[in-house]
UniProtKB/TrEMBL annotation:
Organism: Paracoccus angustae
GO molecular function: NAD-dependent protein lysine deacetylase activity
Domain remark in the UniProt entry: 2 residues (Tyr-52 and Arg-55) present in a large hydrophobic pocket are probably involved in substrate specificity. They are important for desuccinylation activity, but dispensable for deacetylation activity.
Binding site for substrate: 52, 55
InterPro entries referenced in this protein's UniProt entry, alphabetically: DHS-like_NAD/FAD-binding_dom, NAD-dep_sirtuin_deacylases, Sirtuin, Sirtuin_cat_small_dom_sf, Sirtuin_class_III, Ssirtuin_cat_dom
Keyword terms: Acyltransferase, Cytoplasm, Metal-binding, NAD, Transferase, Zinc
Domain Deacetylase sirtuin-type: 1-225
Protein name: NAD-dependent protein deacylase
Residues annotated to bind NAD(+): 8-27, 85-88, 169-171, 195-197, 213
Residue numbers annotated as active site: 103 (proton acceptor)
Length: 225
């Protein structure tokens, strides 16, 4: 069976990482949409680096939970494409072999001048020189609002060939990820969401399993055989 899974901040909530909606989209009294944008970075790179340095430290201190581990197990028994909106590395640390980080990663750094990518240091600051071109044009390798998500060709392909699509711990507010269920459903996939409550795109799913991911995801994975 071909399975495509999309995860959001809710799968990492029980690992202690705050979701976006939990902080009602505010951070240091800034709207997330203002901090996580190229304009926000240009306006105040120190603030944006502070935001990501904090999240990088939180992610490093967190541990994968039973939901991350169950998805790593699922990949050993089924043809699984795992897509995450999350920028933490908890899927990898749980043992998932291939993770598509469509919104980038906290552990990645990018040079806006030459496109060079390298492993981000724990703390990044404005003016850090790029290791390749030495220009002070470094930024977190994160996809901000208004920027093109990564891996979309592979994601569309997986959604078009999936027998089963599951969205786990995502509120369905951010596009194009929030359109994935409809895309898969139109091509015949069975669509399921696992969440504490109905998401904003709940109508795109055939079924919903309500509860904390650390319980519902292992149970769901076990039910797939
Ligand atoms: C794009 C990285 C073009 C940053 C993120 C106007 C101007 C410009 C753009 C737009 C616009 N209007 C719309 C857009 C598009 C925009 C968008 O969707 N905006 C929204 C605000 C309306 N999207 C973009 O700009 C994207 N790029 O459109 O490019 C394009 C167009 C078409 C095709 C291709 C390209 C880029 C968006 C990426 C932004 N970057 N992340 C960072 O992380 O700091 S988004 C960020 O927020 C996350 O990555 C994630 O995607 C989103 C948060 O969503 P969730 O993961 O769902 O988290 P949330 O807190 O919302 O929900 C948690 C859920 O978990 C809840 O449902 C809760 O009930 C549940 N939960 C909680 N605990 C548990 C649980 N479930 C189970 N168990 C638990 N224990």
């Amino acid at each position: 069976m071909r399975i495509a899974v999309l995860t959001g901040a809710g799968i990492s909530a029980e690992s202690g990482l705050a979701t976006f909606r939990a902080v009602d989209g505010l951070w240091e009294s800034h709207r997330i949409e203002d901090v996580a944008t190229p304009e926000g970075f240009a306006a105040d790179p120190a603030l944006v680096h502070r935001f990501y340095n904090m999240r990088r430290a939180n992610a490093a201190a967190a541990r994968p939970n039973a939901a991350h581990l169950a998805l790593a197990d699922l990949a050993r028994r089924h043809d699984l494409t795992l897509v995450t909106q999350n920028v933490d590395d908890l899927h990898e640390r749980a043992g998932s072999p291939a993770v598509i980080h469509m919104h980038g990663t906290l552990n990645g750094a990018l040079c806006a001048a030459c496109g060079h990518r390298w492993a981000a240091p724990a703390v990044m600051a404005p003016g850090d020189p790029c290791p390749a071109c030495a220009r002070p044009a470094t930024r977190p390798d994160i996809v901000w609002f208004g920027e093109m998500p990564y891996g979309l060709d592979r994601i569309w392909e997986a959604l078009e060939t999936a027998d089963l699509f599951a969205a786990i711990g995502t509120s369905g507010n951010v596009y194009p990820a929030a359109g994935f269920a409809q895309h898969a459903r139109r091509r015949g996939a069975e669509c399921l969401e696992l969440n504490l409550e109905a998401s904003a795109n709940a109508r795109d799913f055939h079924r919903r399993i309500v509860g904390p991911a650390s319980r519902t995801v292992p149970e769901w994975v076990a039910s797939l055989g």
